[in-house]
Specification:
Elements: H1 3-12, E1 17-22, H2 32-38, E2 48-51, E3 57-62, E4 68-73, H3 79-90, E5 94-99, H4 105-118, E6 122-126, H5 147-158, E7 161-162, E8 165-166, E9 176-181, H6 192-204, E10 209-214, H7 218-230, E11 237-241, H8 249-257, H9 263-271, H10 275-295, E12 300-304, H11 310-319
Parallel strand pairs: 1-2, 1-12, 2-5, 5-6, 6-9, 9-10, 10-11, 11-12
Antiparallel strand pairs: 3-4, 7-8
Length: 320
């Protein structure tokens, strides 16, 4: 089932459901940790599961002559494969991520063909992060610089248009494409207006819905949804929630994800004696966020779990 249809159906029923996001296994790991993270949440009937895509990393290896050799490595390959494994095991919808970073148009097309063969018809299209050590995003020489171009390629393929031209009498894919939105503005956008215009470009290219970057402030999430409508962005917005779990995240999350942390959250986390207490408070904060967003009529909530779902089980027990 396409995510957009899940959203519409849930909204029609007057309910709120949730999706959650997992990382593919590290190279050399099997499926056990992934399935162990999913199993406890199945009783709460999640709407779908997102699987992240991780671009290449840089590793420096010392050679015999003492010089360093720069090597490209992939630490979390297998997004397509683990998405298929999840769908097969649980019989539920999966949303693999696809990124521009490190991928040529041909790499993207091949991944989409594999997903289509597996019967997966949902994709979250993202630009992706900078390569480690680079202070700006450098696209693959044969790739895309912007997520809107990735969205366009996916929707072109839905129409039977491939990189090397149209294929006669071809099978048409039917991918539902989601994209990212930023309640607190993308870090690289010079201003709010430009950021919203970039988001609209992704929707105009064929995105069916928006998933927000994590936000700990419902006022900002609801203001973002209102702003979308004012800019003519008329697709559903799925709020992203990250259960807070460690004191280190007080500095790490703003640095990495460029989000603001509410004063109340910071004050309460600082009161915690250890990370176990922080994790419990994070559960309470996420539950409060979820209850308020449910009351506002939001049909789907997206949870950033980072592969750890024990706190997510507690949240689901209260909300779903």
């Amino acid at each position: 089932m396409q995510v957009i249809d899940i959203i519409r159906q849930t909204e029609k029923e007057g309910k709120t459901r949730f999706g959650f996001e997992l990382l593919p296994p590290l190279k050399g790991e099997g499926t056990k940790n992934i399935f162990d993270a999913i199993d406890p949440l199945m009783e709460f009937n999640p709407a779908y599961i997102n699987v992240t895509y991780h671009r290449e990393d840089v590793k420096y290896v010392e050679k015999n002559d003492g010089l360093l050799e720069r090597r490209i490595v992939r630490r979390r390959p297998g997004t397509v494969g683990i998405s298929g494994a999840i769908m097969k095991r649980y019989g539920m919808d999966v949303v693999p991520h696809l990124i521009c970073g490190g991928m040529s148009k041909y790499d993207i097309e091949d991944a989409l063909i594999d997903l289509d063969f597996l019967g997966i018809n949902n994709v979250l299209a993202l630009r992706g992060d900078n390569l480690k050590g680079e202070n700006r995003f450098n696209p693959h020489p044969q790739g895309h610089a912007h997520a809107c171009d990735l969205v366009q390629q996916i929707n072109d393929m839905n129409r039977g248009i491939f990189i090397d031209g149209e294929v006669k009498d071809c099978h048409h894919s039917s991918f539902c494409v989601g994209v990212a939105g930023y309640p607190e503005k993308h870090a690289e956008a010079p201003n709010r207006k430009t950021d919203m215009e970039n988001l609209k470009a992704k929707v105009d290219a064929g995105a069916a819905y928006i998933v927000t970057q994590m936000s700990f402030d419902n006022d900002k999430i609801l203001a973002f949804i209102k702003d979308c409508k004012e800019y003519g962005i008329n697709v559903p917005v799925v709020p992203g929630i990250k259960p807070f779990s460690t004191k280190a995240q007080l500095t790490m999350l703003p640095q990495i994800f460029h989000v603001d942390l509410p004063e109340d959250l910071v004050r309460e986390v600082n009161k915690c004696k250890n990370n176990a207490e922080v994790r419990e408070f994070g559960v309470e904060w996420a539950i409060a966020q979820g209850k308020a967003l449910k009351a506002a009529g939001i049909p789907i909530l997206h949870f950033y779990t980072m592969g750890k779902t024990d706190n997510m089980v507690k949240i689901a027990q209260e909300l779903f």
